[in-house]
UniProtKB/TrEMBL annotation:
The lineage of its organism: Eukaryota, Fungi, Dikarya, Basidiomycota, Agaricomycotina. This is Uncharacterized protein. It comes from the Eukaryota.
Amino acid sequence: MWEDYRINGANFSAGEDVEKPEMREQQLRKEAEIFGLWNPEATARKLGFGVENTDGEDEEDDWLAEIIQDVGEDPEPQEIQNLGQAVAAETEWFPYPSKMMFLLDTLDNLPRLRVSSSLMRVFLWVLKEARCKDVPSFDHLRRVQKQLRTQCGTPSIPCKSPLGNVFFMNDPRAIVAKDWANPTTRKLLHVYPEIPEDGIIREIWHAEKWRKNMDLDILSPMYDAGVRHYYVNEVARLRDGKLVIPIRWITFRGRLYADAFSVSFDDQDLATVNDACTTLICAEDLTENYHDLEQAGKIPKWGASTMDAGHSSRMPNPKRKIAAGRPMYSSFVNYFADDVSGNRSKSWNKHWNAYMTHQNLPRKVLQQEFHVHFISTSPNATVSEQFLEFKAAVEETHTDPVEVRDESGNATCFCIYCNAGPSDNPMQSEISSHIGGKGNCFCRKCRVGGTQKEKATDEGYHALFEVSIFSNIEYIILELEKQVKLACSGVIEPVKDLQTETGVKDVYTQFWINGLILRFKEMRKDDPNRSVEEIQKELVQWTVENRDSIYSGFLTTKGFDPTKDTPIEILHTILLGIIKYVWHITHTPWSAEQKQTYAIRLQSTSIDGLSIHPIRSAYIMQYAGSLIGRQLKTLAQTNIFHIHGLVTDDQFMAWKAAGELSALLWVPEIRNLGQYRQDLQVAVANVLDIFATIDPSKIMTKIKYHLLVHADEDVVQFGPLIGVATEDFESFNGVFRFCSILSNHLAPSRDIALQLGDQEGLKHRLTGGWWPVGEDGKWERAGSGVRHFMAEHPILQKLLGWTEPNSTKPGEFKLVSVKRGEGPRKTFTLRSTSAAQAINFGFYEPESVWNKCSSVISESLDECLLGSWVFAASPTAADSSIISGRISDILVDSDKVVLVVLELFQILGTRDETFGMPVLVRRDSEITFSIVLAKNIKFKFNVQHDCNSAKCEASGQRLRMQERVESDQIEKYIIHQPLDRFFINMHAFHNSHLLRATLPRELVTPILLFPERQAKHCELAANLREKQASR
């Protein structure tokens, strides 16, 4: 009887997937075809599906379908004759039989403009009635789309998890292969860590995970020197005759280098690998690889210490054989998971979704929806279950790498590894086998915590503000093994106690724990004479034999540590965390009059130089309790200027600290890592301390506060945290929902995977990607009409979430528009413009003729408008010093020389005492102008008027705009008083990194609110204990 449980197991069986790893690998290899992709139909039959089940038609609106059927939509005789005929690869619209078919397929695969089958039938009917050329029948269209899916699409694989849940997964190998086989994206791929020449950290390959901390065995292992391939962990000879062992390839200044161990010889000519430190060598200086030395008999005889260290046993690198003479590289992906509603309405329709991005691409590219890839979804299979199949596909590439070819026909292969798991905090806890934010040990990254009583002590409370002992995979697996062993005794309480004590609890493993306890009770019931020890021993033996099925795949994925590789997520931790909380305690006590005052102030915000949408203050105030990330991002950057007189001093300081921290985290680059870390640590400390001052209990119950102390280590590991933000993934949920609502709802995982797989195929064809045809090594791509269509029709780029690289250049301008009927464009002499008041006006010809412009492009590629505040290189100082001011005029002459007239302001040497921000005032209280060449405009920044000092009031009245016209409703607005005193908004996200690099350090460095932090925490802990005792 027990044998039956061992193989197929009743309540806690792993089913067909409980196989030995080697059997699993053989099965995958057997089913693999070109690209290393699986055969969907074969897998479907293996799982018990019929072909009709996997290819069933979507559900339609019956009434509309009947109408179209009555009209008659039978295929034309020519269609029937052409069925099954291959389209010639040389044709303009290949692989489509016609332009009409291409357009219809494109229309059917727009991510955010989904077309139901019923509506597509209507379109076809309309086109036929209009007597358009080459209009197919609906069935013919679907047949062509099915052929395209097989030919150059993304396979959707039927999967069954060890828990018995069925779902479909789009093959990650095919998705990543499309980036390699596409000339548009292949040229952007970075395969090695990089030392940035200017020292600025912008990308993941600049940060320490790739450069220092990543397992050396999963980085790209080789350097392609044409006729020779050099692999890490293999001895090679330099041009000067010295022997070295490269261990990590690194790019620097456009050339490839390697961290390498040197090799030295003793008196007996025994070689020793000096692995205590590395030296940087240029890859171009390598002349002989391991095979060259081996064939020449020049492999040295290794000394005992080198043999003991295992260096010789790693030669030759095993990956050399796997690569089989092809260049071999590593691709890294970020795996995002979330629970999402499949409905657009408020009715909850839970699905567990998984998406990914290819991290070898630059961050600017990955921030486009075009490069977010759907992996799987299921209303039944959890994220851990889905990840097991993802992991199996990825690990298959480690022994059978995916082969791709470029335009020249050269073969390359790659392996896939998991880089990070960005998600919201509850999902990251699940990925990390963590009990969650409500547990006693509530941090997934470290072991901080304890009971509520322990956390309220002076020591326990202070510990919440710091990093505790780091957690790691080994610790988690050890604790889970203890829990599984305890479950074999048939009692759940010891397991629960251990989970509470350690904070380790895995949702996936919990299924097996519950099954073991149930099985123990059944075995006791079946044979009361058996001893507890005997049953326990048998169950423990079963867990040993089925270990791979019991523990989460996240814990056994090579190169991925969920305790380190789940970085804090700034959308949920900052905007939906601290900003949302401080906004709640700010607005809830307000009276109706205070709310109106705040709304008027907020609407008066100057948004030039802010990366936000136009402010709708009435909407924000009306729905203050349910704001989303976009609106909270606006408040984080602007609220500090509008809440004076409406909040307590502590609340004001909380907004000040939260805005300062937010601007530090939303940077696209880090210029000085040491300074940045110091500033970040102080900013985090200020947020935690002031929020604890407002409510000392929050940090004990809200994990988002404590997680902030881990921001520093995540920045070091991954670089700027906007690179691992989830906003793009969250936005992609909208694409998923459009597919979900058009599913037949009987097989949602299948329908959604197929549709999103088709969208991947369309994007690949449109951007000129290649795909293999048959097994003869031939590769094809779409015809010229398909490849050029998206470039010729920018509207399609927007519909597909594609953004062309910014083609604007510094110094470009836009002329002031001429209204219809005004006649020819007016010209102006330089003397008649504000340039006449400039201090350097004498350097220019007063009677020269100029046209006026409305905007100019700065060095940072900002569009600077009239009235924009900018920094520029001084036109008069010899030391290229920087000046600041407000744009008064933008002028261009017939030779395209562009001048910018700046109204100059100087920055005071001290910050404002209330706002803690740099202050702009006129020089000697006089109006001063300067003429600057447009190419010398550095960047623009956001400035706010000092309304508090100027006593600006809502004294203005105007007609409220409704439906784009003036209504009869009157609204008040702020009229700024004539006090020329302004604040440089240091809470602004846009160009915050440039501001900090330009301004003196003493004006931008965060200052600790409470220098004696531990004493402050002890004071807060005492207050907390007093409150708890009085309850």
